[in-house]
Fold Carboxymethylenebutenolidase.
Amino acid sequence: MGSMVQITAKDGGTFEAYVARPRGGSGPALVLIQEIFGVNHLMRYQADCFAAKGFTVVVPDLFWRQEPGIMLTDQSEADWQRAFELFQGFDVDKGVDDIAQTVAYARGESSTGKVGAIGWCLGGRLAFLTAARTDIDASVSYYGVMLDEHLGEAGNISGKVLVHVAAKDDFVPPEAQAKIKDGLSGNPQVDLHIYEGCNHAFARPGGGNFVQDAALKADERTLAFLNETIA
């Protein structure tokens, strides 16, 4: 079980973040970036799992400007509707600013002085922007939405980036995927993997699109990537 901390926003105010620590007390730091469901039970479970692997994990509440403490699921129509409302009202630029503040906090807690980020869905988009706009050492994007809109920032990436793309993603159409592949293929900072036959959220445990083999492969690549870049 983790604990809650307060982080100061760049433009004033504070927001909460869930923190999970490894048994030894500290490790390389990870910032986990939420889907559209907030810092829910799954995000906290993911944080606890990475802490069990030796990382100090911080999960910021990025919807705090709209409604603090959002904890939705993907199991009801009402939660999906609320999640999309929050997604549509979300300020991406301020969200990246909040992640930058979280990275600064996490760096002070890191046993190696290095910080990585992992994001899923909306968080996958934000993970990519975090790589382009902050001093993060490594960043992982799982089926990030709207990445094709941010390819012009790829040249600003100084750390390493791992991108997981679902070939049959309902939220990232083929033309967008083609742009992403073309835009990132020549970037030495970026390693991109395609998961054939998989839909959006193929790595979300308990989700309708979960594909165990693909999820395990993506997670294995992610862990190896983090051990190479921030451990």
User: Anything to note?
Assistant: The beta strands are 3-8, 14-20, 29-33, 56-60, 115-120, 138-142, 160-166, 190-195. The two ends are 22 Å apart (CA to CA). The chain has a mean pLDDT of 97. The chain has six helices and eight strands.
